[in-house]
Amino acid sequence: MATPLDIVKKKRAQAVSKIISKGYLSTKRVYVGMATCEIAAGSKEVMAVFKDAMAKGLTDVYLSQKGCAGRCNLEPTVEIVEEGKIPVKYGKVDEKKAREIIERHIKNGEIIEEWLI
């Protein structure tokens, strides 16, 4: 029979595993704007590109959605927050730009100046 301490240790291990699997400890965070207007502008497709990249092995990235940024003319938006760096926000991101952001910015550290907002 498991002791109370064994139960606590098991619960802790499960919690730590969940934190790691969700990417909460990642050094890179990607936020895709998913307010109603951003969805209408194509953010679901942009989010799908990031999810697909993660399913294919993109690591050390926490992917999440965010609400309205109040910049409808620049949607869809993607914000990248990296440990120790100033956050970067890209505007008018489509599927092609999302793939380039993954390759150039997330994988190679290059900020794509012409897409910044």
What does this protein structure show overall?
The chain is of the alpha+beta class. Helix content is 44%, strand content 17%. It has four helices and four strands. It has helices at 4-22, 36-41, 43-55, 95-107, and strands at residues 28-33, 61-66, 78-82, 88-90. The protein has a four-stranded mixed β-sheet with strand order 2-1-3-4, covered by helices on one side. A hairpin with a 5-residue loop joins β3 and β4. α3 (43-55) packs across α4. The longest helix has 19 residues, at 4-22. The chain is elongated.
Distance between the termini: 59 Å
Tally of DSSP β-strands:
4
Q: Any idea what the shape is?
A: elongated
- Strand coverage percent: 15-25%
Give the SSE string.
Answer: HEHHEEEH
CATH topology: Glutaredoxin
Regarding CATH, which class? Alpha Beta
Helix content: 40-55%
With strands numbered from the N-terminus, the spatial order across the biggest sheet is 2-1-3-4
Task: State Rg.
Answer: 17 Å
Count of discrete domains? 1
Instruction: Report mean pLDDT, rounded to a whole number.
Output: 93
Low-confidence stretches: none
Structure annotation, total helices: 4
Indicate the CATH architecture. 3-Layer(aba) Sandwich
